[in-house]
């Protein structure tokens, strides 16, 4: 094993999205992190099973990665060999466009996703179900000593995906917000929003996760399965953060009615179906907005880890040793919605040997 | 004619939305403005022709009204008999709810629209195609001396409807925004946004209004009738303000692509059809938002008139003397999209006699 190649578990056929094969993932590596672990997420399961469209094959998924740096390019300054670092869903951007220069590199037109994206040199990016992954230093983050690697990993995509809209939309003391859905994304949304000082309500279709929501710091748990669930909450929330992929089945005006004037319904969950048909008039009774976002930027990633360290926030995880069978198990379990709340592949040394 | 009754032009049958009959409009009046003029708008034409649903009949429309106060209730303090005042699309709210106490009275659950709303005493509110109208003092605005009545009138609904989202979404120096559609609403959006210091682009389906747009202060005029119109404008606008009622025919992701990161596509134009089918993913490439609003609040109305007076902003109007035929003509012309840019009914004294 050298720093110029990597081995991982790859999918060769999207119809066989749980059939992982061990093979070489990266022909050459610039900045290299030796992955000690990565995280299996619903997004990855979807990606592998074609849920989000075509991807280049074979592909090695995994985009919540913690490891140690084993090699760096000549110009790299912010990380050094041996550092314990994390990499999320993005590994590069042009860093020169208006968006990048304005701390919006997660909206760069030339971004490289952690897996399945084409580098200018023709390489396809490959993810963290692997011995090594390649990332630009700007998208490589030192993990605070206070946060264990397996706890840090899922924050790198699920965490930042909710942290970014929370801070941009003003989750803070005095604000009341609703988190819709309590899964991998939702459980971070609750913990971060509470840590930021907001009052958090969890909205869920069934009462099954009430206990967990309250343990995570939610003030109230609202079951949305009944026809008039929204009526007691008119003009209640400054922000609704949807983390489910089921928006096509929502009566959106019911949710909108629970927003304060000019509040935002923000989604970070994306399904395979269009949004329900809606009139523009549905936004007028309280002047509300609907929107979405894509991960977060570097300053937000650093602030999120600082907050997690300061408040001793812990991801709720289920560790699974990485192996061909382990990879298959977690994507099947995610597909079956069994995760509570994030699977983390661990014990990489047992599979790939000591790399750092 | 006494201050306790009023006569106006009313529609008795929505299928005959241009057949106005002169009859008594108000059985009793609290705060009364003697309407010298009011404005016919597309919204009114739609309302009268059933485009926006049912309304109580007979009905007297008109919701951009300037006149002089001829009577006040015992507790009225902010206006007095003889004042030249304006009334917009809202004549009352409870003034006690959280929204009202937070300067969001235009989103009060107990608001009374200027026409077609039910007062607690059982009266139906009636609008400005009339000798008098009734409004609460909080929704009655002194008109600055520098602004002629016929110029002020259309600002009371069309003006405030665009002024409110412009200031709430930060139209100011350094911001670049797009106004979609140049009609009664759009022409105010251009003039106000320019006066607020923003750089304004007008987006229109055809080039026919280019000259007018530039005269109103727009920096650029973009014709959206071609397939790739949006491509040169990726990440360009802080805000898009749609004033058309044709959103059902828009390719919304094309418009979204022209927004800067976290920008807002805001509509104040409402059609009869649902928005086009769209994926939640369409909001993710720049983290943008879609929303709408309903008129504006009292502080915004006062600030808008102050701005119009300070910058000598003039509504582009076509005056038509009020009469049964005049009312019919303006609703037909609005229906045929002939307005450039707002019809104003004038010469009320000729029809109703001197009232103040």
TrEMBL record, chains A, B:
GO molecular function: oxidoreductase activity, acting on the CH-OH group of donors, NAD or NADP as acceptor; zinc ion binding
Domain Alcohol dehydrogenase-like C-terminal as annotated: residue spans: 184-308
UniProt entry keywords in alphabetical sequence: Metal-binding, Oxidoreductase, Zinc
Domain Alcohol dehydrogenase-like N-terminal: 52-145
InterPro entries per the UniProt record, alphabetical: ADH-like_C, ADH-like_N, ADH_Zn_CS, CAD-like, GroES-like_sf, NAD(P)-bd_dom_sf
Keyword Metal-binding: yes
Keyword Oxidoreductase among UniProt keywords: yes
Needed co-factor(s): Zn(2+)
Similarity comment text for this entry: Belongs to the zinc-containing alcohol dehydrogenase family.
Record's protein name: Enoyl reductase (ER) domain-containing protein
UniProt source species: Zasmidium cellare ATCC 36951
């Amino acid at each position: 094993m050298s720093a110029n190649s990597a081995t991982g578990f790859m999918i060769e056929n999207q119809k066989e999205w749980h059939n992982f094969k061990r093979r070489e993932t990266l022909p050459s590596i610039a900045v290299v992190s030796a992955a000690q672990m990565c995280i299996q997420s619903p997004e990855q399961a979807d990606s592998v099973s074609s849920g989000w469209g075509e991807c280049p094959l074979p592909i090695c998924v995994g985009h919540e990665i913690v490891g140690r740096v084993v090699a760096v390019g000549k110009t790299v300054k912010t990380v050094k060999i041996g550092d314990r670092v994390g990499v999320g869903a993005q590994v590069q951007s042009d860093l020169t466009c208006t968006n990048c220069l304005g701390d919006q590199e997660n909206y760069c037109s030339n971004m490289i996703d952690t897996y399945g994206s084409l580098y200018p040199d023709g390489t396809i990016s490959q993810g963290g179900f692997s011995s090594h992954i390649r990332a630009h230093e700007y998208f490589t983050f030192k993990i605070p000593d206070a946060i264990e690697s397996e706890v840090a990993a899922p924050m790198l995509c699920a965490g930042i995906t909710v942290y970014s809209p929370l801070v941009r939309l003003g989750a803070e003391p005095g604000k009341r917000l609703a988190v819709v859905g309590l899964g991998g994304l939702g459980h971070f949304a609750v913990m971060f929003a509470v840590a930021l000082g907001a009052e958090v309500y969890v909205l869920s279709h069934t009462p099954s996760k009430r206990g967990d929501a309250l343990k995570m710091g939610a003030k109230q748990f609202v079951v949305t399965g009944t026809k008039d669930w929204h009526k007691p909450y008119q003009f209640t929330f400054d922000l609704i953060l949807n983390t489910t992929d089921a928006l096509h089945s929502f009566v959106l005006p019911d949710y909108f009615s629970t927003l304060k004037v000019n509040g935002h319904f923000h989604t970070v969950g994306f399904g395979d179906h269009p949004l329900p048909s809606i009139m523009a008039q549905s936004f007028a009774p309280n002047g509300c907005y609907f929107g979405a976002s894509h991960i977060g930027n570097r300053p937000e990633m650093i602030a999120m880890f600082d907050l997690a360290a300061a408040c001793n926030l812990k991801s709720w995880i289920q560790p699974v040793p990485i192996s061909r069978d382990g990879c298959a198990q977690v994507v099947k379990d995610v597909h079956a919605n069994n995760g509570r709340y994030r699977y983390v592949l661990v014990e990489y040394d047992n599979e790939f040997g000591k790399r750092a």
